[in-house]
Every structure is written in structure tokens, then in C-alpha cells.
Amino acid sequence: MTSTESAAGDLQEHAALWSVGEIRAGDVVSAACDALVAGLDSPGLRALAACTRAEADYDVRELLPLALEELGLTFYPFGSDTGREAAARALARRMLAGELTPRDLTRRIHRRHGHDLALTERLAELDDEYDILEYDDEYGIFEHGDRTVARIDAEVIAEARRLAAQPRVPGEHVDDPG
Where are the chain's structural domains? Predict the structure, then answer.
């Protein structure tokens, strides 16, 4: 993948994460700056990258859709299932890159989507399993059958790989997620 393709993917992921409230508008501006440095360019991207931290919270909402459209990327409407799915895939990739623990991934997915998003239902269930183990340990219940944190972690990692195997950018082909 070229640096411009990587920067486009990063910008797309930042946009998806921002649209569901996972990251701040300033993080999107930073991704826009990185995209310019990597060689992507459009008037909307330049305007987005020029935002100050104080302006970002107000201006990203207006500037981001235009910048993404000019670059042939997708803007996911707030609250849309496609945007929530894109954000979940981005979080899965972050976990596989070591930026989140498996437990953190399930907590964030469960908090944002509950059990309502089919793509992430298994991660929400695994978050419940972590909670049960924590509760049992707190109250001295030590019979978990074959369930351990390590086994749940392994299932989360497998599920994250499944999610990450889906393209970052529409039309992109992904061979190896991690």
C-alpha cells in the first residue's frame, strides 16, 4: 500500500471514529494534516487541515464531508449503521496494532453499540463474559468451567481479525489483517 493509500485509509478511519464519538475533531484535523504530508491534496482537505484546535469542534462537521468527497472517500452519516460498522472495524484494527487491549475493545464496542449491531454482537457478548468473570472473582466464585480471561482474549482477537479483514476504504482489497 502506498503512503497516499495508507493516509486515505487513516483519514477514512478517523472520520468514522469521529462520527460515532470515539475521537475528537482535533484528531481528524491531525489526520488531514498527515494526509497532506503523505501527498493527498484537495481544497477541502487543505481547509480541514488548516483548522485550529479551537475551530475543529465547529468546523470539522462542515468541512469533513466535502474533503472526503473530493478524495473519493466515504462520509458516514451520524448514527448510521454503516458508520458504526466502519468505526468498529477501525477499533478492531487498533486493537490488533496494540493500541487497545482485547478487554478495552469489547468495552468500547459494547458501550457504543450494545447488542444492537449485528457486526459487533459477538464482541458485546464477549464483554458480558469478561464482566461475569470479574463479578465471580470479586465475590469468590471460582468455578468458570473453561472460561478464562486468556480464552476470552483469544476469541476477541479472532473476532477483531474477522472485522479487520474487511476493507478500510471502500473498494480496497485486504489480504492479511494482522
Answer: 3-70, 81-164
